[in-house]
Specification:
- It is a single chain.
- The protein has 436 residues and is α/β, with parallel strands linked by helices.
- The chain is 48% helix and 15% strand.
- It has 19 helices and eleven strands.
- It has helices at 2-18, 22-27, 34-45, 47-57, 67-82, 88-102, 107-120, 133-141, 145-155, 159-169, 181-186, 192-205, 233-236, 245-254, 271-279, 293-305, 321-324, 359-374, 396-405; strands at residues 174-179, 210-212, 219-223, 240-242, 261-264, 285-290, 311-315, 331-337, 377-387, 409-417, 428-435.
- The strands form two sheets. A seven-stranded mixed beta sheet has the order 7-6-5-8-9-11-10, with helices on both faces. The protein has a four-stranded antiparallel beta sheet with strand order 2-3-1-4.
- The model has no long low-confidence stretch (mean pLDDT 93).
Amino acid sequence: MADKRDAAFKVLLKIEKESSFSNLALKEEASADDFVRRLVYGVLENKLYLDYFLDKILSKGVSGTKPEVLVILRLGLYQLEFMDSVPDYAAVNSSVSLAKKYVRGMEKLVNGVLRNWTRRKSEIPLPDPNKNLTEYLSVKYSFAPEIIDIILKQRGEDAESILRGITDSSKEGTIDIRINVFKAMEGGASSKDKACDETIEKLKALGLKVERSELSERAVKISKGDGLITEEELFRNGFISIQSEESCWIADSVGASSGDKVLDLCSAPGGKTCAMAEAMLNKGSITACDLHLHRLKLVENSSERLGLSIIKTMEIDATDANSMEKIQGTFDRVLVDAPCSGLGVTSSKPEIKLRRPETESLTKIQASIIENAGRKVKAGGKLVYSTCTIDKRENEDIIEKFLSSNRDFNLEWERTLLPGIDSMRHGFYVAVMTRE
C-alpha cells in the first residue's frame, strides 16, 4: 500500500509543478491502479476544500508551503476526510513516511498538521453563505470562484443542486459502455435491439452488473468488476467501447442512417464518429476531421478495432474557411462537437474545476466552426452542434447568433443535460438544426 501512495504522490506532484493533465500523468505512472487513481482524482476533485482547511492550520499558510509538503498534506487530509476504508492512523503514518522519503525534516510538521486537523476540524467552519455565497460554494464543492459565479448567474437557485450533482457523480463506481450494434449484427443478431440484448447478456456472463441507459438504447452502465474491461475479449474484438451515455446520446441525436453522407468536423478521439458509423451499420460515408493529425490516428485505431470501414480522416482547421475548402461537396448530416470549457465533465476531468474558463477565446472558435459547418449542409440536411459544457455562452448563445445570421436554418430542438437536475452524470448540450 505504501507503493500506491508513493505513486499517487508522484502523479500529484507532477500535476502541481508542471500543470500536467491528470489522465496523462496517470498513464505515465506504471503502478497507477484503481487505488492510486482514487487518491489522485480525489485530491484534485477536493483541492480547494482541502487547501481551505490546511490554510487555517499551517503557520505559513498554503502559499508559503513547499509543493512537496503540500501534496503530502492533501493526500493525508483527503484520506482522513473522505476515505472511510482507510483508518486515521494509516492516513497519518503513511503521510509521515512520504515526508521522510521526499522532504526529510518535515515529517514532524506533516504529523502535527494532520493530527491537529483531526482535533480542530469542528472548530473551522466553512465560509458563511449569507456573507459570501460564491466563496462558500467554491470551498464546499472545490470549484474556482469564477466558475461558481457563472453557474450562479446562469442557473440561479439550481446552482447548488448542479454542483452537488457533479460532485456526487464523481463517486459512482460504474463505467459507461456503448454496444457496437453493427458488429453484433454481423455476428448474427437479427436487429439492433437484439444486438443490444445479446451483448448485455455477454456482459452479465462476465459477472458484471449491467444497467441500461435512459438516454441511449445502446448505452449501458456496468460495475467495474475485478479486471479492466479493455482486457476483455468483448472489447478487444470490437463489440463494446467505453463511452459516456451522454456522449452516445449526442451521436444518436445526429440521426445518421445507412447510406448517409456525414461530416464530423471535430472528430478526435473518435467516440462519436464511430458511434455514428455503427448506427449506420457501416453503410454510407463519414468524413472525420480534426486539427491535429496525430489525434486522427486515434479515430483510425478505434474504427479498425470496431470493424468500421466507412470513416475517412482529414486534417482540417475547421475555423479556417480556406482549410474547409479541402472538403468537397455537401452532406446529409454535419456534426460540430465543438471544443469547449468542459464544465459538464469535471467529474472525469477534475482539473477543469480549478481553472478560470477562457470563454471569450472559446466562443470565437465555436462561432467560426459552426459558421463554416453550415456551408457544408445540403438542402434538407441537418446540422448538429454539441458541447460538454453547461455554460450558456458556449451553447444557446452560439446557436442564437448562428440562426440570426443564417435564416435558411431552423432549430428543431435543443437540450442541456444538467447533473443534479437530470439523472445524468455529466453536463452536455445539443442543438439540432435543419437547412431549408
